[in-house]
Design goal:
mainly alpha; Non-ribosomal Peptide Synthetase Peptidyl Carrier Protein, Chain A
């Protein structure tokens, strides 16, 4: 069974249309991966839906890399 890290990586890969294995966990979504604000909101919404959690909007600014996104999501996943 995949862990949270793999699941979130797959979600992000689907949204940004890049192969999961090509996403460097520390690459900046905006500068390195071409993510725009709509994609960032889509990533947030997908994580919230998958794990049935609510991540406050002020946390959105922290979702800049795959690793950081996983850290934030894990704060809310029970």
């Amino acid at each position: 069974m995949p862990g949270v890290e793999e699941e979130i990586r797959d979600l992000v890969a689907t949204i940004i249309e890049k192969p999961a294995n090509e996403i460097n966990p520390d690459a900046n979504f905006f500068k390195d991966l071409g993510v725009d604000s709509m994609m960032a909101l889509e990533i947030l919404a997908a994580i919230e839906k998958k794990y049935k959690i609510s991540i406050p909007e002020e946390k959105l600014a922290q979702l800049t890399t795959l690793n950081q996104t996983i850290v934030v999501a894990k704060e809310f996943i029970k």
